[in-house]
Amino acid sequence: MPSPENRTLCIFGDSHLGSVRRALDAGLIDLDGFDVEFWGVTGPLFRTQLHMLDGVLTPTGPDAAAMVEQVNGNGRATLSADDFDVILFYAARLRIWHFQFEYLHRQHRVGQRISQAVLRAAAQGFLLDRRMARAAREFGRQGKAQILFAPTPYPTRGIGDYYAHKQLLARFPDAIATTETARADMWQIFVDAFAQDGVTLLHQPGHTVVDGLFTDTAYATEGAAENVDISHKSPEFAALMLQEFMAAVK
Predict the structure, then answer these.
(1) What whole-number distance in Å separates Cα of residue 97 and Cα of residue 79?
(2) Are 236 and 182 in contact (CB under 8 A)?
(3) I want to staple 154 with a disulfide (CB 3.0 to 4.6 A). Which of 137, 150, 160, 215 is the partner?
């Protein structure tokens, strides 16, 4: 039963919500002080049948509506900024590392280095092209709930061949030389962009990152190698991200 002493929290996202549920079920993290609901859609429906309509996240097709009902379990058909005290966007198809691989690779190339002003403008353009970044910022501007965003984590090292044709390190080989300082500087650009609209962007913990812009294989989801799943992570990783959330939300 909800406690009147707790704040209400919605964890919104895509298939990455599965690792969050497993982390909570296994007792790897305690979201003390919150009554928690999940809300979201998995698979292609996240892209095709989930949209922001008049400031409200809304399933726009019957398949997405049915999945929202399954994921939420409380009969909440839509998600608006005034439904909860706190909303955490978790993964939600925001792959900031797509931007980071290219631009941090360029920073190592003579004649390709980019000024801070250009980087900040490019980052803003990148976010404007991402639906859920726009949704979080719209929620943040409404000022009705505290909004935080934990973007999709870095791809997992050791899963698949990143040097294969058109893969990440074939296209951006120097990204692997990214230092912790350079990575933090790039993150700060996105932190600042979100903060303009009252959204707190959460960092992936530094000790989970290897080889510049990859997640340590120790945090791969179960069956990642067999399924060549570079994206999803373990419940242990989700617990670390929820620790970041708890530190930020206080």
Answers:
(1) 27
(2) no
(3) 215
Q: Give CA–CA dist 106/101, Å, rounded.
A: 9
Answer yes or no: is pLDDT of 1 > 60.
Answer: no
Cα–Cα dist 180/211, whole Å: 10
For the structural domain made of 7-249, what CATH number should be given? 3.40.50
Nearest to 16 by CA among 92, 125, 104: 92
Residue spans of the domains in the chain: they are 7-249
Provide the residue count of the chain.
Answer: 250
- Dihedral of the CA atoms 51, 52, 57, 62 (nearest 10)? -30
Q: Are 48 and 88 in contact (CB under 8 A)?
A: no
C-alpha dist (Å) from residue 213 to 61, 103, 176, 180 = 36, 12, 6, 9
CB atoms within 10 A of CB 50: 25
Phi/psi at 39 (5° precision): -155, 130
For strand 50-53 and strand 56-59, is the pairing parallel, antiparallel, or unpaired? antiparallel
Q: What φ, ψ does residue 233 adopt, rounded to 5°?
A: -125, 175
> What is the per-residue DSSP string for 107-131?
TTSTTT---HHHHHHHHHHHHHT-H
For the residues 109-129, what does the mean pLDDT come to?
89
Instruction: Identify the H or E element spanning 194.
Output: helix 180-195
pLDDT by residue (tens digit) across 158-176? 999 999 999 999 999 999 9
